[in-house]
Predict the 3D structure of the following.
Amino acid sequence: MILVCDYDLLLVFFQDAEIEKVVSFSQVENLEPLDVSRAQVILADEERLKDMGRKYDSIRRNEECLNSKPLQDVPNSMEKLQSLKALHIDQINASEEHKRRVMNILEAYNTVVMLISKQFMEWDAVLTSLEREKALAASK
């Protein structure tokens, strides 16, 4: 018994005059075609059948790989990957916090260095003016 669900196949069935007289569209699912009609159906769908055969052969050749232990363990691996993903997200968040803290420390360091530099510049200006005054007082 053949179930027909493709319009092209229906056309092939109804090309045969005997089938046309006996069968209506509602009876096509219960149809047992004649040998000629069977051959026409196979020829009409030849490319699809060949393609399916190639795919089946490819699956048979790769069956060992497809049934390998690593592929069988994929569901278990996914659970492990989910926990690793959560850990990775936590590490990213922690690294962002560390980055923020380092930036704050660098800003504080830069501020201290800038303030110390200003203080040294002020002391240098004071010492320079005192040395100038001393040199002026000594030259008089």
Observations:
- The chain has a mean pLDDT of 81.
- The longest helix spans residues 74-139.
